[in-house]
Amino acid sequence: MPPEALPPELVLQPVRTGLPQAWRRALVLLAATLAALLVAYASDWAAMAGQWWNASTYNHILLVPPILAWLVLQRWPELQRLAPSGWWPGLILFALAQLVWVVGAFAGFSLLRQAGAVAMVGAAVLALLGPRVGAGLTFPLAYMVFLVPFGDELVPLLQMVTAALTIALVHLSGIPAAIDGVFIQTPAGLFEVAEACSGVKFLIAMIALGVLVGHVCFRQWRRRAAFLAACIVVPVLANGVRAWGTVYVAQFVGAERAGGIDHLIYGWVFFGVVIALVLALGWRFFDRAPGDPLLDADRLLASPALVRLAALRLGDGALIAGLVALVVAGQGWAFAADRLEASLPRQIHLPEVPGWHRADYRPALWWQPRATGADHRLLGRFADGQGNAVDVFVALYAGQSEGREAGGFGEGALVPDSGWAWQGHGPALPDARSERLLGRGEVGRLAITYYRTGPLLTGSNGRLKLANIADRLRLRARPTMTLILSAEDRSGAPATRQVTAFTRAIGPVGPWMDRIAAGR
């Protein structure tokens, strides 16, 4: 449908004398709505801004807001030709974004809360400006996903990938070495592929760059996909080479000096080299001219699908009332769920275990799991007459909320900055998470983690979150419990054997945990 065939109120011709009247009203309303959302979800936006500023993994996000502004400005001359209008399906999208936030609040999962807060901004733009303007802003609205600090979930996988690449290159360079999880032993010393060495910060930043460059510099989707793939693969491979270089140099100058050189190169040089390499690889395949417009208003005005969608209008007053009602309902629901508290006994005890007795807790290196916000905590050691000793940690929560999540970051067996490092996965066990830890590069420990809520017994943080969400959606109060069984590797007594002997003695783990939670 050509523009001249459209109703006059749906087409705005370029205005030489200033901003069109319809846009003035729409932008004022949009600015007021976005300001209100920032206030209503201030804690989530403040948490995100704190991560952007303080966490090196997310420092690149500080560039995303100006990039979004630039993307909108590039489209502004064409956007002015489109008439903004209220759109009631935008309320449905806003409700879905609000649901994401509510689920995140119910699970104590900040990533979901923050994703919901960002998605609500995009949904509000669609609701207040309509589908045509929303179509013109498709990429900037989608690019807002990079405001959400995500990527830490990839750290363990990237540690293992980097360790595998490093040991392969170390062997190829003729250096004798052995690998155990993320630890590599060489003649120059023991090296750990720590979280900071996983390369996650550069990978996430490169993905954000790859998406932006793919949109601005390419027209063909195959070229965009190939460039984005390079932005994923090259940083991972380069990080493996960097880690190998540290190990290789250490064989000649010592581990301490090599580590200092690595930090300098990694922080100031490495990322710049990777960016230059990827851009150089993609440069000759760029197929969008610098002056090509990023938006064609005529195409949007002539789109039959957008004509039908634009007919689903709603007045500004009704839209604002709908947005306010959704915010109040979502926050009220979360407020009520936050105050759910299950009944707990005044005191809990570790039960007697046949063939085992309580022993003094004297670990070779101090180990104490973290359970922030738990209502009850127990840490004790059991020993038998055959040289086995198992440490038992219990945390019992009356409820789950922000700041007291059984499976939250930094909670459980591996406490950040405690002297213990994640070494790798332990033996596979049903309904449990099995991890190997290494303390000060010397003491090995196996930690088996179980979560219990209602009838669920699992070692999966994800399954625990889903169960907690289901309870809070129904405003049903249930206690949540963490059980960690752990043992140190000792000469002649591997940790796996000790923990296996203890679990046989206590019988089914779920009922044993229930006995503790009941105070029996």
Automatic annotation (TrEMBL):
Source organism of the structure: Novosphingobium piscinae
GO biological process: proteolysis
Protein name as it appears in the record: Exosortase A
Gene symbol of the encoding locus: xrtA
MF-aspect GO terms: peptidase activity
Record-annotated Methanolan biosynthesis EpsI domain positions: 321-509
Membrane topology value: Multi-pass membrane protein
A GO-annotated cellular component: plasma membrane
Compartments, as annotated in UniProt: Cell membrane
The protein's Enzyme Commission number: 3.4.22.-
Main location group: membrane
Bilayer-spanning residue ranges: 26-43, 55-73, 85-112, 118-145, 157-179, 199-218, 225-245, 265-286, 318-336
Keywords of this entry: Cell membrane, Hydrolase, Membrane, Protease, Transmembrane, Transmembrane helix
